[in-house]
Amino acid sequence: MTALHTSFVLGYHGCSEKVGRSLILRQQQPIKSETAYDWLGPGFYLWESDPQRAYEWAEQKKKRDPTFKPFVVGVVLDLGNCLDLTNREDLALLQVAYDGLKATLDVQGTPLPENRDASFDSNNDKLFRNLDCAVIRYLHASLDTGSPLPAAYDTVRGLFQEGAPLYPGSGFRSKTHTQIAVCNLDCIKGFFIPPL
Predict the structure, then answer these.
(1) Hey, which of 5-19, 97-111, 112-126 has the most confident mean pLDDT?
(2) Could you tell me the superkingdom of the organism this chain comes from (predicted)?
(3) Least confident of 5-19, 43-57, 136-150, 178-192
């Protein structure tokens, strides 16, 4: 965990209007995503400092479900004990977790999961992150078994390069964002309706 970031951040969650308003009114708890391809592992996903990207995500969901009413809810978040995959120390922990997962699966004769492209994505962004999710799950599980690693992570934060290059030869991508998976929902300090 890095101790070099500010603890509180503003995150934004794309969702339906019904879900967003019920979160703001505290009528329901956030629901963690648990799919095998979540790139930061299980958690309640937020876009850090980017309400527009959260809205774009909700708009994409509407394309698949015309009854879906896109909405963005703002979240005041204490990162707590954060696995921050934008710093080298935490990236090194992830490498160790990969080595452990690979060794475990090799003994079982089970192949490693793979990250893969989505059929609807022409940018080869590897949107389905089954390998990355498995490595992060393995790291979380290692913490539960009394390993010498730090206490369980409250949040996982990472930079995701996504989308087409901004211009020919660019290293910048059109949908690059910082995303946070909230593992410990007690780190959420409040919700709000952001100005878009």
Answers:
(1) 97-111
(2) Bacteria
(3) 136-150
The continuous run of DSSP H or E covering 62 comes out as: helix 51-64
Reported in sequence order, the residue ranges of the chain that DSSP labels E, i.e. its strands, are 8-16, 44-48, 70-78, 82-84, 115-116, 128-129, 155-160, 177-182, 188-192
DSSP per position, 154-184: SEEEEEE--SSBSSTT-S-BTT-EEEEEES-
50-87 CB burial, b ≥16 within 10 A, e <16 = bbebbbbbbeeeeeeeeebebbbbbbebbbbbbbbbee
Is 136 within 8 Å of 41 (Cβ atoms)? yes
Where in the chain are the domains? 8-192
Entry pTM = 0.89
Q: 165: which strand partners? A: 173
Phi/psi for 59 (5° steps) reads -65, -40
Report the greatest alpha carbon distance in the chain: 52
Give the pLDDT confidence of 43-62 residue by residue, as tens digits: 999 999 999 999 999 999 99
Per-chain mean pLDDT for the chain: 90
